[in-house]
Structure formats: structure tokens, C-alpha cells
Amino acid sequence: MDILVYALYIVAFAMFILGLSGLTAPRSAVRGNKIAAAGMAVAVVATLIHIRETSSWLIIVAALVVGVILGIPPARKVKMTAVPQLVALFNGVGGGTVALIAWGEFIESDGFTGLHAASGPVLPLVIASLFAAIIGSLSFWGSIVAFMKLQQILPGHPLSVGRLQQPLNAMLFLGATLAAVIVGIGSTTTGADLVWFVAILILAGILGVMTVLPIGGADMPVVISLLNALTGLSAAAAGLALNNIAMIVAGMIVGASGTILTNLMAKAMNRSILSIVAGGFGGGGSKGVSATSTGDQHAKSTSAADAAIKLAYANQVIVVPGYGLAVAQAQHAVKDMAKVLESRGIEVKYAIHPVAGRMPGHMNVLLAEADVSYDAMKEMDDINGEFSRTDVTIVIGANDVTNPAARNDPNSPIFGMPVLNVTESRSVIVLKRSMSSGFAGIENPLFFAANTTMLFGDAKKSVAQVTEELKAL
Amino acid sequence: MDSFLANIAILVLSGFIGFAVISKVPNTLHTPLMSGTNAIHGIVVLGALVVLGTAHNPGLPLQIISFVAIVFGTVNVIGGFVVTDRMLAMFKTRPVDTNTSTATDGKN
């Protein structure tokens, strides 16, 4: 490899690391992302220098142009609420690239036999390539299913074949591995059959689909994060096979970061990664219970005017936003309400649960979009002590993250999950469309608590009404 | 083999760097971080370029596969960085805050 190309690769991955360090603080994050993007440009230019004698310029340039044309519009136009599925989609095409690279290599090297021309043992390279093929295909198809679930093309609740699920997935995994072994053995002799290579891609793809299908909507962020990490690892493996240092470093860093993120998210929900992947938890929240009562329990409903009066005489108000706020696009309305409250000298804070929204930090992005100050957004551990000193807590479209059963009901499926202690505040107003349960599909005793009142309706409209009433006071 | 072993060493060290750099990221930036790392693994477009670019007289199947691979990889890179930038732009300190310190927003 040219020294220049190698040097540029080193510059590129140094920029990735620098850029990622920048992402650790809000003030340097924008610059960090730009540095990483510039690093990517350096890496691509270096690669183009490396392959400058190719006869395929036309295809390469055309493909780059098409990629840019397809990539920019969705990234620029996507609503902030739809970011998780877009990340899933971008992650998927990355995984797809890895699988296709392995396939292309397989063809180019006549079933990997062509690699023998290179010096030294070739088996490690073949193994890396096969690993990339399996994980790349799994990540591609898994991400596509995750995308379709979040986009609600597929239902959000778990789809599974019951008890057969795990044995079936194990067989698919064994099948893909077996096909990979056959290809690997073939590569040492006369060249492996293309059929077996395609079998790897297909089996791994079905495995990806079957793994994600049984996972419910609530666990989807963890799954996307896991697939993100896997794509990173497969990129590193493909880098090993191609002896490409930039791919090795960048892929592995993503693999490491994705693993940390996955762990953090799973911890925030008090779930293990294994049990999430095993699937079956978390419905689509469609098990709606009748309007205001379930059995002998009654939730008290309130009006916008009453809610406004309560708020007007509070000293401190905490807003607990959830996915419902995002769906209703109510972040701007909430900001308007907060402005009115602040003009009355009331302190407004936002309590952000780590998994509020669809991904960690998703809610912060949505609120930042509405110009909510970064300092007013409090993380769970920082604000949980404050609820007892708070007059009114407004829960907007959040459910499971406020469920007191997670703290005091050992029989609850979410027992042990860290939640916001909203019940400790003097009064709670819950804005909700109906009494339907959250993504975990479980009832929330908060709604029936003595100090809780419910304000039913679309979150955006309700907040706007409350704001009007506040102004009129 | 030497270069393979050297690459493995780089791989392991990169893993540790990834852990070290990223474990410091605050919760609030996790979504942009996920999106940003997602863009960085778009580095795979390099692999697609190398496979096609170093092939001698690539046949049609390889051309098609590589074309799709380069398109996918480019979408991953460009889309990933653009959407991350959009998210992060929302965290930018607003102009009115420039003369206050970073820790307090001066808004009580």
C-alpha cells in the first residue's frame, strides 16, 4: 500500500477519535461531528488514491453520486421523532455494504482461492470475511425489521412462533455457521461453491429477521444499538480481510461504543441484553382499557382550567415528557406553557428518564428542538430527590417510566426498573390520550393515586388549552 | 501473517480506545452519539471501493454487487453525518447566552 494512503488513513482515524471525544460535551459536539465527517472525507480520498489505476471509475463515481442523492434528503427532512427508525435504516445499509463486500471479495477471488496468491496463510482472512458476511447480513435484515416496526409498517408488538423461537434461531445460526465452514474448507482446495456463500447470506438474513420480529417496541432502542455495534464489528472484520487499517479502527471503535450504549440502555430498563434478544416482552400499547375506570379503581379526570389553576399557584413545576409528547409533536406547546409559567415566577424543570422517547437522549433532542435550555433538562438521578419539594408534576405522554409499581410491587414485570418518583410530588397531572397501557403493556397505579388527576386528550391540544387558561388567569 | 497479527493488535487497541472515549458521554447526547457512530461505521464504503477498484476486469455480477455496496455505504456515511449534525445543532448555545458562563444558563 502506498505510504501516502497509509498516512492519510492514520490521519482519518485520528480524526474519528478526536471527533468522538468532541461528542462527549454539548458545546463541542457539533464540531466533533464535523471533524469525524472530515476524517471520513480524508479516508475516502485516500482510498480513491489507492485505487487510482482502476478501470471502473464510471461505476464508482456513479455509485458515489447516487449514494449522496439518496442519503441527504431523508437525513435533512426527517422529523426528530422519526430519528430512531432512520438510524436503524442507515445502520442497515451499512450492514448490507459489509455483506456485499464479502460477497464481492468471494467472487473476485474465485471463492477465496485467489487469496493464495498473497503471501502467508490465508485462512484468517477467509474467516474474517465469512464473519463479516454473517454479521453484515444479520445486521442488514435485522435493521430493516426494526425500521419497519418503528415506522409501523409492521406491528410493534412481539411477533413470534412461541417456544420454537429459540431452537429455530439456534438452527439458523448453526446453519449459517455450517455453510461458512463449508465455504472455508472449499477455499483451501479448489474454491468454494457460490451456492454455499449465498446460503450464508440467506440464513444469516433470516436469523436477523427472526431475532428482531419477536422483540417489542419498548426494547427496540436496545436492539438498534446492538445492531449498530454488530455492524461496527463486521466492518472491523471486513477491514481485517482487506488489510484496511481505517476500517479496522473505525469499525472497532463503533463496536465498542455500541456495546456500551446497548448496556446502558438495557440497564436503564432493568433488562439484560440476553432477555431482550430472547424476545417476547413489550407490546404496542394497544391493550386499551375502558375510558376512566378499570375494575374498582377510578382515575380522576380534570379539565384544562383546573389544571391551569393548580399550576398557577405552584412554586415549582416539573414536566415529565414521554414518547406521547413526541408523537403529538407537543414540544413547542410545552415550551410555550413553560414560558407563561416562568413569567409568573414559577420554576419549571424537565425530568428526563434515560429511556424516555425511543433512544437515550432522544427526548433531549426533541426539547432542544423547541429551544428548551439544556440546563433545565434534568437527568433522573439529579431530579428524583426534587419531586417531594415540587407542587405540581405534569406527566406528558409518559407512562412506564413513571410507574410506581417498579419500586413497590415485586410482582410487576418492570419491578426494579429505575423510575421517576413522580408520586412524591404534591400533585400530579397526567396528560394522556386514553387509559391505554404503555409499551410494556402493564397498568400504571400512578393514574389511580389520590394526588393524581388525568387530563385526557391529544397532548399538544391539552397543553395549548392549559396555556390559554393560564394566560387568562 | 505479520501484517495480520499487527492488524489484530490494532483491532484490540481500538476497542479499548472506543470504550475509553465513549464511556464519558453524558446520557443526553446518547442519541446523537449513536447516530454519529452509525455514520462512522459507514467507513465500510472504503471496503466496497477497494474490492471493485482493485479487481482485474470485474465481471458484471461483481460490478452490480459493488455498485450497490458503494451506494449503501455512501448513504450510511452522508445520511448519518447530516442527521447527526441536525440533531446537534439543536443543542447549540443560543446567541443570547454567549456572555454567560457555560454551566449556568442565566435564566432564572
TrEMBL record, chain A:
Q: Where is the NADP transhydrogenase beta-like domain positioned along the sequence?
A: 7-468
Which keywords does this Swiss-Prot/TrEMBL entry list? Cell inner membrane, Cell membrane, Membrane, NAD, NADP, Translocase, Transmembrane, Transmembrane helix
Query: For this protein, what reaction is catalysed?
Result: NAD(+) + NADPH + H(+)(in) = NADH + NADP(+) + H(+)(out)
Gene3D superfamilies from the UniProt entry: TPP-binding domain
* Annotated compartments: Cell inner membrane
Look at the named UniProt entry and state the broad enzyme category this protein falls under: translocase
Q: Which SUPFAM superfamilies match?
A: DHS-like NAD/FAD-binding domain
Record family assignment: Belongs to the PNT beta subunit family.
Relate the protein's function as given in its record.
Answer: The transhydrogenation between NADH and NADP is coupled to respiration and ATP hydrolysis and functions as a proton pump across the membrane.
**Protein name per the record:** NAD(P) transhydrogenase subunit beta
UniProtKB/TrEMBL annotation, chain B:
InterPro entries reported for this sequence: NADP_transhyd_a_C
Which molecular-function annotation in GO is an example for this chain?
proton-translocating NAD(P)+ transhydrogenase activity
Query: Could you say which enzyme class this protein belongs to?
Result: translocase
- Keywords, A to Z? Cell inner membrane, Cell membrane, Membrane, NAD, NADP, Translocase, Transmembrane, Transmembrane helix
Q: Which reaction is this enzyme known to catalyze?
A: NAD(+) + NADPH + H(+)(in) = NADH + NADP(+) + H(+)(out)
Look up the domain of life of the source: Bacteria
What does the protein in this record do? The transhydrogenation between NADH and NADP is coupled to respiration and ATP hydrolysis and functions as a proton pump across the membrane.
Q: What is the name listed in the Swiss-Prot or TrEMBL entry for this protein?
A: proton-translocating NAD(P)(+) transhydrogenase
What is the organism lineage in this UniProt record? Bacteria, Bacillati, Actinomycetota, Actinomycetes, Micrococcales
